[in-house]
Amino acid sequence: MNDAFKALADPTRRQILRLLRDRSMSAGEVADQFNISKPSISHHLNILKQAGLVLDERQGQSIMYSLHTTVVEDVIGWMFHILGKEGKEHDDEQ
Amino acid sequence: MNDAFKALADPTRRQILRLLRDRSMSAGEVADQFNISKPSISHHLNILKQAGLVLDERQGQSIMYSLHTTVVEDVIGWMFHILGKEGKEHDDEQ
DNA sequence: TAGAGATTTAGAATATTATCTAAATATCTA
DNA sequence: TAGATATTTAGATAATATTCTAAATCTCTA
Asked: Where does the HTH arsR-type domain start and stop, copy by copy (chains A, B) (predicted)?
């Protein structure tokens, strides 16, 4: 989950997640939304993928990226754990 | 909220929040939980404070740190927004 | 199968972050 | 008020992160 928190620390990556929330997009479509080079966006997408926050699937020439919500739910669980007094047995990497 | 996400990206700072979840602690008490120098912990506490995730209050010689949950709730709100399809009008920097 | 389009990989420059030691500041108490 | 305790500030160093351009890879189609 450390990778997820690190991935979420960058505003560009959070914006990518917001875009993918509405619909899946190809890497190029994502890149078109930013004033950042395609290789940089590709790097951000890879970080999100490593963190388990997005899935990628090749469709012909394009690679489609979509939101993967499982880890998002894990992060929410961690945040709720911080809020509540109960449930001290929450797992976390150091 | 960008500051909060950045603050949460560091595992030491997340562990500090977990410690403060159970009870408020002085800076020294927090530092005693880690193999990290006191100035470094002080730096982490300051980042958490700037992000609005903790509050500090001097009590005599000590400075007590406590969890401040408002921004945690904001982050949870952002995360839920990513999960759900509805509520596209969520505020976010960037 | 050659070329075009989409994406990633490689390598480098710059910026940010985490950490340390040493010194400064603030508070209490004898 | 002098010394002890608690914490922060300053300044430096090493590790990470973000971004770029150029080149490589993969896929489709004419």
From this structure: 1-87
Residues forming a β-bridge with B67: B54
Q: Do A73 and B83 touch (CB under 8 A)?
A: yes
- Across A60-69, average pLDDT: 97
**Which fold, A2-83?**
Arc Repressor Mutant, subunit A (1.10.10)
Residues of A in contact with B76 (CB under 8 A): 76, 79-80, 83
pLDDT value, residue B7: 98
Task: Establish whether the CB of B43 is closer than 7 Å to any nucleic acid atom in strand D.
Answer: yes
What are A9-48's pLDDT values in tens digits? 999 999 999 999 999 999 999 999 999 999 999 999 999 9
Separation of CA A51 from chain center: 7
User: Could you tell me the residue ranges of all domains in chain A?
Assistant: 2-83
Report whether B34 contacts B12 (CB < 8 A).
Answer: yes
pLDDT tens per residue, range B28-50: 999 999 999 999 999 999 999 99
pLDDT band, residue B93 (cuts 50/70/90): low
- B2 strand C contact, CB < 7 Å: no
> Based on the number of CB atoms within 10 Å of its own CB, is B35 exposed (0-12), middle (13-18) or buried (19 or more)?
exposed
* Residue among A12, A9, A46 nearest A27 (CA): A46
Q: CB of residue A94 closer than 7 A to nucleic acid strand D?
A: no
Q: How far is the CA of B34 from the C1' of C27 (A)?
A: 25
